[in-house]
Structures are given as C-alpha cells and as structure tokens.
Design brief:
- It is built from 21 helices and 16 strands.
- With 508 residues, the protein is α/β, with parallel strands linked by helices.
C-alpha cells in the first residue's frame, strides 16, 4: 500500500493527525520539516534566515522525492506530514500522487491562527497572523485542490479527522490503473487529460442517487451525459450493448473522451466492455456502489457481457481509475454487504490471512476501511503480475469454478454462490492436499454466508461448468488451498467436482 501524504496550511494539524494515525496502525510517521531540519542541522527558521526560502524549498523537495521513491519498510505505507508550502513544487506534488494518496487537511484561516498562537513561523514574522494566513491560503487554495486526492475538513477534533484520513488510500494496478479509496468521492473524479471533451455516465436505477453526485462532479470537468441501463444482469446483454453504442454515436463520443460506470459489478463489467470496444478502446473510470464491485468486479480490467453463459463475451481493459467511497459502502443494506464480503474473504483465503482474522474477529461488523484496502491490495498485486490470466491471476477464481454453475442453476446471488463454491473447493483441497476445510467454512459461517445448498442439481451444474471459460485443452482448472494464503491451481476431473458438490449438499 502506498504512502499517506498529509498536506495543508500551517496549523491544519498534519503532524498531530499523522502521529494519531501511526499510533493506532502499523504505519510509520514521518515529518518532512523535521527531516529537513535534521539534515541541515538547524531549524526551518534558521535555514530561511541564513539561506533563504528558495534553498529551504529545494531541501524540502529533495526529501519529498526521496520518500516517494523509497520503498516503505515491510511493504507498509507511511503517513507523512509535509510543510505547508509543499504544493508550490509541481514535481514534488506529482511524486507524492504517484507514490500514494494525498489528503488535504483544510481549515479556515481563523482556526489556523488560533492553533498557531505565538509559534515562531518564518512566513508570519512581523505580521498579523490571521490576516497573513488568509493571504497565504488564498494563494495556495487552488494548489491544494489540484494536489490532493481528498479534501478533509480539519476544523474538527483530531480523533474525527484521523478516523476519516486513515481510510484514504491509493493502490496502483500495474502502471495503467489506480484505485482511490476515501471517505467519499475524490474532489476530482477524472484523471487529468488535455483532450477530453465529454464523459458518458452509465448507471442502473438502484445507483441513481450516487450517480447524481458523480454527474455533478463530472460537469465541473467536462460535458457529461447520463445513460440508465436495466437493473442487475439484464444490463449485461447484447440488446443493452446495442442501445449504448447507438447513444454514443449520437453523442459523437471521441477517442479522448471517457466512459464512467457507476453501480455494482454488472454496471462496471458493462461500462468497461463499452469503453474497451468503442472506437477500439477509450478511457473508463469506475465508481463501484457495492462491496462486491469495490473489492472485485471493478478492479483488474476484466469486462464482459453475458451470451449463453456468464461473461463469455468480454475483454481485458484497465479502467484508468476506480474511485471507492467508504461512505457509500457503509450505507449499504446488510444483504449487499454480506454478498460483497464473500469476495473480500476470498482475498484473505488466497493471499492475506489477516483478512480472514478480521472476519473471524468482527463477523459482519468488520472494519470497512481496512477490509476494503486489504482486499483491493490483494487483487491489485495479483493482477499487476498477470493481467491476462495466463498464470497466477487464476488464483482469484477460488470458489468460482463450481460457484458460477451454482449461481446459474440454483438462482443464488454471486456472493452466496461463491461462498458455497469456496466450501466445495475446500473439500476438494482436503481430499487432495490434506487441507482442513473448516478453515474456510467457519469464517464464512461467522459472516452469515451460506456454506451448503441441499439440492439434486449436480448434473445441471456440471453442464454449466463444462462450458466455463477457464477450461483449457488439458481440462478444467480449479483453485485449491494448501493453506490459508497458499493457493494452487490444479486440473480436476468430474469425480473431484462431484466430491466438492456433495460436500455442500448438492447431489445427483
């Protein structure tokens, strides 16, 4: 996970908030001003007095670039408090944005003046503090806005500010895509682009409230049009695709324009496919409104529509940005949270045992920010290594080999079907590899997810499985577990599949 950069005016609480976050997480706190003072052997005031403000800014910029390029110890991102004028250096700002998420702690000049009091600040010497702060803030306000991914109201108690800031994250997916996680939507939703004229927003009826907020953001950046598509998987049809293509032609959507998908996995799959195929590929930005979409469907560049099977027509096409609002996810009804938790705990089973521990500790009341960031980090790391699923990316299909068939035949939701599919895969893992299947079943039960479905539908499910796109000339692949966090992909025969189905109550 990348660095968490704190920017803002003097007195905004960057160091105080940063230390508070470091004290309650495994992040290391770094204060850029303190590092400059340590290297120079004198205070900031001394540097400015003896060498001038330009020299100080050069030292500050050098520290910013060094920290941006330096890997964090243990792979854990740091929380870094910067000086108030760091946004005056475009190169430093770009380095911060590439190496993590930038949170702007914003407070009125009067509040800042009250906090600073009689502190010795070079830029305030010999002036009315409140008036001088107001002048500086007026000059820098647009620079903070441009530099930051998220603006945070800092005119609140430290604990409230820290609780909001700690949920901010930027996770890179390969070099082509980024995931932004924050308390709400980022201040600027679209990545910088000199040629963009239009953005087309695709949403379903259920996501219309969030889509309205997104549309307002878009209209501050480009000409924006909203197109509504049918609910659930009805959106992922050839008929819906044809309607969308016709609308894009009417709008004369160009190669430098952007498709924005707002909704659950069905919409992000559809919007991504439209972007991948319109004019042979244009930019897409995704705003998932379900936990399932946030931790799985929107990340990794898999797009598709349903033709005689789930996602049998599709392409690999990275969204340039995925924006995840923790506020939107926290207000989801319990059934949608439960469904998404299946894909989140799957990330734990295949790569992050700490995620499994979180679900065991908290059950359905799990800490949203940590779960989302960890699950996204798992998928981003796997996808970055194997974008087109020629190798390691296959481990993301844990529970899906039988889960997709169960979903289609038994009418379960995707998350519920994958949960049952994971227990089935754990049973096959127990038979082949000696894995204890209860280590999968018990966390799922702790969450309240189904772990069996009593039905005589194995033949129908196997017919669906035989058409699965994961089949190769050698046979059907299935993700098994040697241990939590230690998956292996093996070819399986019909006997193994029937064993897995029987373990979850599905007989012939």
């Amino acid at each position: 996970m990348g660095n968490l950069w704190l920017v803002g005016m003097m007195g905004s609480g960057k160091s105080t908030v940063g230390r508070s976050i470091a004290a309650t997480t495994d992040r290391r706190f770094i204060d850029v001003d303190s590092m400059v003072e340590e290297r120079a052997g004198m205070s900031i005031a001394g540097i400015v007095d003896e060498q001038g403000e330009v020299a100080f800014r050069e030292m500050e910029g050098a520290e910013i670039r060094r920290l941006s390029a330096e890997p964090a110890r243990g792979g854990t991102g740091r929380v870094i408090a910067t000086g108030g004028g760091v946004v005056l250096d475009p190169a430093g700002v770009e380095a911060m944005r590439r190496s993590g998420v930038v949170a702007w702690l914003d407070a009125p000049a009067g509040v800042l003046a009250g906090r600073i009091g009689g502190e010795d600040r070079p830029l305030l010497a010999g002036s009315d503090v409140a008036s001088r702060l107001a002048e500086i803030l007026a000059v820098r306000h647009s620079l903070y806005h441009q530099a930051a991914h998220y603006r945070i109201d800092a005119d609140r108690p430290v604990g409230e500010v820290a609780a909001e800031v700690v949920g901010c994250a930027r996770i890179a997916v390969d070099d082509a895509s980024e995931v932004l996680i924050g308390p709400g939507l980022p201040d600027r939703l679209l990545p910088a682009s000199s040629g963009r004229e239009q953005a087309v927003l695709i949403c379903q009826p259920g996501s219309r409230p969030v889509a309205g907020s997104v549309l307002e953001l878009l209209r501050s950046e480009a000409e924006a049009t909203l197109i509504e598509v049918p609910d659930r998987d009805a959106a992922k049809s050839v008929d819906t695709l044809a309607v969308l293509y016709s609308r894009l032609a009417e709008l004369n959507l160009g190669r430098h324009d952007t498709i924005v998908g707002v909704g659950g996995g069905a919409v992000t799959d559809l919007a991504g496919f439209v972007a991948a195929t319109w004019l042979r590929g244009i930019e897409s930005v995704l705003v998932p409104t379900t936990l399932l979409g946030a931790v799985d469907a929107s990340i990794g560049g898999k797009t598709g529509i349903n033709v005689m099977g789930k996602n049998l027509v599709g392409s690999f096409w990275h969204p340039s940005r995925v924006a995840i609002s923790l506020d939107v996810l926290s207000r989801l009804p319990e059934p949608l949270l439960l469904e998404g938790s299946a894909e989140a705990v799957k990330a734990g089973f295949i790569a992050d045992p700490r995620l499994v521990d979180l679900f065991m500790e908290h059950g359905p009341s799990f800490p949203m920010a940590e779960v989302v960031s960890r699950a996204v980090a798992v998928k981003a790391e796997v996808v970055s290594e194997d974008f087109r699923e020629t190798g390691r990316r296959a481990i993301l299909n844990f529970g899906h080999t039988l889960g997709h068939g169960i979903e289609v035949v038994c009418g379960l939701s995707h998350g519920h079907a994958v949960a049952v599919g994971m227990v089935a895969a754990a049973a096959v893992s127990a038979d082949r590899l000696g894995f204890d299947e209860s280590r999968v079943r018990v966390p799922l039960e702790r969450l309240g997810l189904p772990t069996r479905i009593d039905t005589a539908a194995s033949d129908a499910i196997l017919r669906i499985v035989q058409r699965d796109k994961k089949r190769t000339a050698t046979g059907l692949r299935m993700v098994l577990l040697r241990d939590i966090g230690d998956p292996v992909v093996e070819y399986v025969d019909e006997a193994a599949l029937r064993l897995g189905l029987a373990a979850v109550g599905i007989a012939a």
